[in-house]
Design a protein that fits this description.
By secondary structure, this protein is α/β, with parallel strands linked by helices. It contains 15 helices and 13 strands. The longest helix has 19 residues. The protein is globular, with a radius of gyration of 21 Å.
């Protein structure tokens, strides 16, 4: 244990080193071009340096094209899709007022954003033992590949990402970088096969959409996803759903500022949780585990209270008991984990959120993230609790959930 790791919270409880279950990676330039068959290298994802164009955020998706003049920035090109790498997603080390949606180059971001050894070094600066990283360019559950036309290429891209994640990003990190795989969302049987392929090499987490119908995919009520859920349950693979993985965002008006959707984005996760609780999926697959990333946790107690009340008082007409013999909260406490890093309300309601149902995160390198001050943030949020509770939140629950080789 380092001198830093033995630092104490304001209440005197030792703050364990953090295991973060929600960070992000900026994919390196040659991730796909170095792995795809030669015939796909000119149409698959690749980096080119081109002038910055106009950037428009449309309902959670960037609509943009390279410009014709000005300084060059890094652009991902893939079939008909173009996307510039932005300061917003590589914000670590930059003041808030310098973080924007303008394009940057790889030289203009911290190496820890995209280089594994540099990431581990940044984790050392941040009292962090291990990190689970969601993708950036493919979006939070790989929905980019679901949207493209050539599904043979899309499947190759998913597998290439997973190979890179296991072999290079996490490869020689000694377990400090935790693999998170993608699946082909357009085919539940292929998704199940990819879960099993990666589970054989130690992957215990998969990125999935919190609201697949928002991606034009079948609902979790339909039975379509059962092969995928069965594979996850059988292999102990946690279904990890990041805010925004439904692509759409909640907004009361088309002309509302982006601050409105940024404040309401937890509503996506709330809708997803209630959907799962009533779907019967958790009843049919009692070994299946769900984790909601970056959604915070303060909203969970009321969502559970309302769902349980509907299960009783509206059972006659709502179908509340059609798929679940137990109250919805039963399945939450048994199988669902939340994740937070900025939520004092959640801490006030901890007994109802559930001390065994929460994990912590740093969100590196996003602008919302707490790097390099995560230890201090953690101490302010939950350092006043007893040592066992502090341990569970900081790392213990994550170790149990993901089957990590940490104490």
């Amino acid at each position: 244990m380092t001198a830093e790791s033995s630092a104490e919270s304001p209440a005197g409880t030792e703050m364990p080193r953090i295991i973060s279950v929600d960070d992000h990676v900026v994919e390196p330039p040659e991730l796909w071009s170095s792995r795809l068959p030669a015939k796909y290298r000119d149409v698959g994802p690749r980096i080119e340096y081109l002038p910055q164009g106009e950037v428009v955020l449309d309902g959670g998706t960037y609509r943009e094209r390279p410009g014709t003049e000005g300084r060059n920035v890094a652009w991902w090109l893939y079939e008909d899709h173009t996307y510039s790498i932005k300061r917003l997603i590589a914000a670590a080390g930059y003041p808030y007022d310098e973080v924007s949606v303008e394009g940057i180059t790889y030289d203009e971001m911290r190496p820890g954003c995209w280089q594994p050894k540099a990431r581990v070094a940044d984790m050392e600066m941040n009292h962090t033992d291990a990190s689970l990283c969601f993708p950036n360019y493919p979006r939070f559950c790989g929905q980019l590949f679901n949207e493209r036309q050539d599904k043979e290429l899309s499947l190759l891209c998913v597998k290439a990402y997973n190979d890179w994640m296991v072999e290079e990003w996490c490869g020689d990190s000694g377990g400090r970088l935790i693999p998170l795989c993608l699946v082909p969302l357009w085919d539940a049987d292929l998704a199940a096969a990819e879960i099993r392929r990666n589970a054989e090499r130690g992957v215990r987490a998969v990125a999935f959409s919190e609201l697949p119908t928002w991606l034009g995919l079948p609902s979790i009520h339909s039975g379509y996803w059962d092969p995928f859920f069965a594979a996850c349950a059988e292999t102990g693979t946690v279904v990890c759903m990041h805010i925004g993985s439904g692509t759409r965002t909640v907004s009361p008006a088309d002309d509302a500022p982006d601050a409105v959707t940024a404040s309401l984005i937890f509503c996506n996760s709330a809708a997803s949780l209630v959907d799962f609780l009533y779907s019967g999926v958790l009843h049919r697959y009692p070994d299946l585990k769900l984790m909601y990333a970056e959604a915070q946790i303060g909203w969970i107690p009321y969502a559970l209270e309302r769902a349980d009340d509907v299960w009783v008082t509206h059972a006659g007409w709502s179908g509340a008991k059609n798929n679940i013999p137990e109250p919805p909260s039963f399945y939450y406490y048994r199988q669902v984990y939340g994740c937070f890093f900025k939520d004092s309300v959640g801490m006030d309601l901890l007994d109802r959120v559930g001390i065994d149902n929460i994990t912590f995160e740093t969100d590196y390198p996003h602008t919302d993230g707490t790097w390099p001050n995560t230890k201090e943030v953690a101490a302010r949020l939950f350092g006043h609790l007893d040592a066992e509770s502090v341990y569970k939140i900081a790392r213990g629950n994550a170790i149990k959930l993901l089957g990590l080789d940490f104490d």
